[in-house]
Amino acid sequence: MIETIGIAAGEIWKFLDKQEQPITLSTLRKNLSLSSTLLIMGLGWLAREGKINIEMPENSYSYRISLKR
Prior knowledge:
The chain is of the alpha+beta class. The chain has a single domain (about 1-65), classed as Orthogonal Bundle (Arc Repressor Mutant, subunit A), CATH 1.10.10.10. The chain contains three helices and three strands; from the N terminus they run H-E-H-H-E-E. The protein has a three-stranded antiparallel beta sheet with strand order 1-3-2. A hairpin with an 8-residue loop joins strand 2 and strand 3 (about 65). It is globular.
């Protein structure tokens, strides 16, 4: 399972690398063919490695995700 999560993290990273602005979790869900569970696990992997920013702006109910550059 660890390998599968790592592959999912790689897909997420590649998608985020193409984005110029932080994106929402729902944008990731729509554009990647990962289950919700694998998407969250992959984001956790990237967060643990310190490779992404995850923010929730004030007055918003949607996370914004971007790569640390």
